[in-house]
Specification:
The chain is built from three helices and no strands. By secondary structure, the protein is mainly alpha-helical.
Length: about 60
Amino acid sequence: MTRLPRGFEAYKDSPLSGPLRLKSFIVEQPFPAKVVTSPDFAERVADFAVRALPLLKFGWAALD
């Protein structure tokens, strides 16, 4: 976006102004092949989802 979303004008000179202009956010966690084939892979994916949840909640709240 070329300008900050409505309601975020106060962040114009903030380090957050760049991320606030993004239209989407992506979180990723690379997993080596050794981890993908390990018995605890599902647990590692679940841990990653828990760590990503705050960003999801922020996005959902912004839609309300």
